[in-house]
């Protein structure tokens, strides 16, 4: 899933620009996320426990799915140097082991005087929205970069 870095400046962005990535969720991803965060809820880690829930089996952490959005923001749109300001998240459906999550980030608004971009963020599995929301990011300006490096 490693994305090639794309370093965009605010001046490179246009409303409607889209970046996408996909990631197939593995059991080791879920276990690793639990280790990193300390969230060891058995619905994520124990098939025996999760089988007795309305989901009928293990599911990925919601924030694991959300972290895939962060991967796009930090590597592709806008990429390195972007500063995450805020993120809304709506969890619509569970993500399961072996699901392939398709992530789409789209520029929906640009605020030039503040170098801010509002981004629509949607994660789907087999065409079903599993997570959606909106992010605000501060994007480096090419003009500011040139002054700083002079």
From TrEMBL:
Pinpoint the MaoC-like domain residues: 21-109
- What is the E.C. number? 4.2.1.55
**The protein's enzyme class:** lyase
Provide the GO biological process annotations: fatty acid biosynthetic process
Identify the Pfam families for this entry: MaoC_dehydratas (PF01575)
- Extract one GO molecular function annotation from the record: (3R)-hydroxyacyl-[acyl-carrier-protein] dehydratase activity
Which key words are in the record? Answer: Lyase
**Which InterPro entries does the record cross-reference, listed alphabetically?**
Fatty_acid_synthase (IPR003965), HotDog_dom_sf (IPR029069), MaoC-like_dom (IPR002539), UPF0336/Enoyl-CoA_hydratase (IPR050965)
Keyword Lyase listed? The answer is yes
Q: Does the keyword Protein biosynthesis apply?
A: no
Q: Where is the signal peptide?
A: none
Q: Which GO terms describe its cellular component?
A: fatty acid synthase complex
Q: Which PANTHER family match?
A: HYDROXYACYL-THIOESTER DEHYDRATASE TYPE 2, MITOCHONDRIAL, HYDROXYACYL-THIOESTER DEHYDRATASE TYPE 2, MITOCHONDRIAL-RELATED
> What name is this protein filed under?
3-hydroxybutyryl-CoA dehydratase
Q: What is the lineage of its organism?
A: Bacteria, Pseudomonadati, Pseudomonadota, Alphaproteobacteria, Hyphomicrobiales
